[in-house]
Amino acid sequence: MAKKSRKQQSGGTPATVALTASGTAHTLHAYEHDPASPSYGEEAAQALGVSPDRVFKTLVAEVDGELTVAVVPVAGSLDLKALAVAVGGKRAAMADPAAAERTTGYVRGGISPLGQRKRLRTVLDASAEAHPTVCVSAGRRGLEVELAPGDLAALTGAVVAPIGRA
Question: What is the 3-state secondary structure (H, E, C) of the chain?
């Protein structure tokens, strides 16, 4: 994976700016987003020719009233109870989409775990560790970033726990 130069990052998203500033090795993958696609994550996996278990979606949930980011494979779903346990909470529910967009600074389908307006607690599904690299949204629909799961966890301060369901 090659680190992108500042010139390649110009006009980038907060996620790509954060990656460049950190010096983390990553690869950007752009594709033509189809607004009619029923699943942003599955669309990304197909467009990039990557297994859906290596492409992760960023979901925002509320755990005991606090917004929390969950990063899980697009091939599965989020186990809300496991998410709550992972952060020491009791109850989790999906966050209001408008609150998720306002807090992260991204639009649905383009929410990245990186470069969020307000840094939220983050949990990365443990299945990410089975892959040398994973793909997550780079901050807009049609743009994914590929990086090592350990780097993703370090950059987001994520707890790694089994929060996904197949």
Answer: CCCCCHHHHCCCCHHHHHHHHHCCCCEEEECCCCCCCCCHHHHHHHHHCCCCCCEEEEEEEEECCEEEEEEEECCCEECHHHHHHHCCCCCEEECCHHHHHHHHCCCCCCCCCCCCCCCCEEEEEHHHHHCCCEEEEEEECCEEEEECHHHHHHHHCCEEECCEEC
10 Å CB burial of residue 20 (0-12, 13-18, 19+) is middle
- Are 151 and 62 contacting, i.e. CB atoms less than 8 angstroms apart? no
Residue 149 neighbours by CB under 8 Å, 6+ apart:
124, 128, 129, 131, 133, 134, 160
> pTM higher than 0.85 for the full model?
yes
Contact between residue 73 and residue 59 where contact means Cβ atoms under 8 Å apart: no
Residue 11 has pLDDT above 80, yes or no: no
Q: Is the CB of residue 135 less than 8 Å from the CB of residue 28?
A: no
pLDDT tens for residues 88-122?
Answer: 999 999 999 999 999 999 999 899 999 999 999 99
